[in-house]
Amino acid sequence: MQLLQPNTTLQSGKYRIERVLGQGGFGNTYVGINTTFEERVAIKEFFMQGINDRDDATGSITVSLERNKSLFEEQLEKFKKEALRIRKLDNPHIVKVHDLFEENGTAYYVMEYVDGENLAERLKRKERPMTEQEVRGILPQILDALKSVHDAGIWHLDLKPANIMLTKEGKVKLIDFGASKQLNSQKGGATTSTAISYTNGYAPREQMEQNYDKFGPWTDIYALGATLYNLLTNKRPPLPTDIDDDLTEDKQEVLPIPLNIGCTLKKLVLWMMNTNLRHRPQKVEVIFSFINSYFNEDTILPDSNKKENSIAEYPKDCVNNKKHRLTRILFACACVLALILLGWGIYDKNHKSIELASEEKEDNQTMNFIPLEAKKGNLKTIVQNIIDNMVMVEGGSFIMGATSEQINDAWEDEYPTHKVTLSSFYIGKFEVTQEEWNTIMDDDRVVFDGDNKPIADVSWNSCQKFIQKLNAVSHHNFRLPTEAEWEYAARGGRKCQRKKYSGSNNLESVGWSRDNCGRRVHSVGELQPNELGIYDMSGNVSEFCQDWYAEYSKQNMKNPQGPSTGTKPVLRGGSWIWESRTCRISSRGVTDEDGRDDKYGDIGFRLAESLE
After folding, report:
1. pTM here?
2. Domains in the chain, CATH or no CATH each
3. Does 31 score more than 90 pLDDT?
4. How far apart are CA 519 and CA 572, in angstroms?
């Protein structure tokens, strides 16, 4: 006998077993009655299939083989910790734990009884996917539950339809924290000494590889994206390796989503299931912001007969977690009026540019219509300002990578640290602005709403074109900074004070990130500069470097230029859409695939020049 029989009592009659609710590899769950209050409860019993036996007469649990005793005891402790973790979470969308006790040689915890079914059962019963409206109805509830979990420093690590209950009233309850892990407050990773179980299709690469130091909110967010895919298609999500093998831009071969699902929800699923953990939403609040901006406005379903509504036509910035742009329902009407009266270039609802006289780009925060003849500065004045705003960085040696002040938040690619020696050079005091870009790039201007805001939504190749044109009129030899030059300047060069961010240990005083930017890019130079008088090297927009991306070497280097060939330019500094961790001095970024022509709304650049 492996299960307790109906009418079995526990805790001296306090609880009475009614029936079996479910069985798993590590436990049995029963519907029971709290006899004191005559309330129905769910009771979870720790029982390891293949390891435990039960005495038919007493109901007590034993370990079948002596060699399995230590394993049983270890897993029993994890079971009790699971109950304690859930007990701490006070959220209407997380099942509540009322009691924890030991009896029959094992442990039990008592939960509220959820009168409903899990989402996997619902899909099976109805034999169809959920509608977009149904998914939109439950998604905010799941996100609210996840936020409480993450705020408590816990990662769920087994989020899937079978672990999400839906009551008859349509209320979501997150259950089963058996795989959950507590955040190690000292190291930042998950606290564990044993392998973590996972469900294929719902686990991202870092979980499948048991790379605990890379666990975070983004790990559960991947699982939530896979859950949404399953609910919308009634198909099992693919493995991360299968997603990587799909070379289509929209992953339509392995992640086909029905054509009647709105483009916003499709973008969100693809974004959350990005196999690169750094390109997923980094925390739940980012997803809340996204759906609050888009879901009330994305009322038009795509037409399967029109190419512009295919997933491949979605803005690459949304798919790859590079920026969030707010749309407005009234925009469509305004576009029509603008076309008739002014002949301006605008965007359609999918943000694909409609070329009239030339292209215009929208700002990330507002939807101001700007005439095609956008302001550009006097060429001579602009060029002279660029020259005057170059800061001389005296050469020297420094340790590049995750130095002591960076260690707690460092990514794997910031190692190994290594000594770099640089000659003196110049670097821009500010990121290249929109006015500077439009003045130099007279045949390829980009219209935003702020001349002093940094240029963004430009590719690495178009930056090179800008530099060529600037050099032709200025008779200088401007270029992008090397990655080593960028980090040395961000650290303050010879004036380095070992700050976490460029100029301060407090990001809000020197850089715009998603925590303080108000969901928009800011004009250059609004915050404090670093030790060399250079602005915005942490946050605002990420910055292209001249180097191709490559792993670090332990060897000491002098004036390193990076690999001689490559396809993915290095990015530095983080941006207004990223968390503070990405805005650190040593944090490295990279574009997706062949990044030379990629454009993202949070990537710009600053200039450098060798000191001759």
Report:
1. 0.48
2. 9-112 (3.30.200.20), 116-319 (1.10.510.10), 324-373 (no CATH), 379-610 (3.90.1580.10)
3. yes
4. 20
